[in-house]
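can u do me a favor
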């Protein structure tokens, strides 16, 4: 996911996307603890996506 794609979305869409990504991160952490997660690098990708969404939300609020 690129930041440019997020700039076009409105605040409601960004908040919905943020909720989905946070839920996905939670599920991935659970899978990691139970040794079911095969690709650990996906965690960092999801964390970076959350950071990009938060940046886009903060830019919209200003």
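np, heres the sequence
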């Amino acid at each position: 996911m690129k930041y440019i794609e997020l700039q076009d979305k409105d605040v409601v869409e960004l908040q919905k996307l943020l909720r989905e990504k946070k839920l996905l991160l939670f599920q991935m952490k659970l899978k990691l603890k139970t040794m079911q997660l095969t690709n650990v690098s996906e965690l960092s990708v999801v964390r970076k996506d959350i950071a990009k969404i938060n940046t886009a939300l903060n830019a919209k609020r200003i």
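The CA atoms of residues 25 and 46 lie 6 Å apart. hope that helps!!
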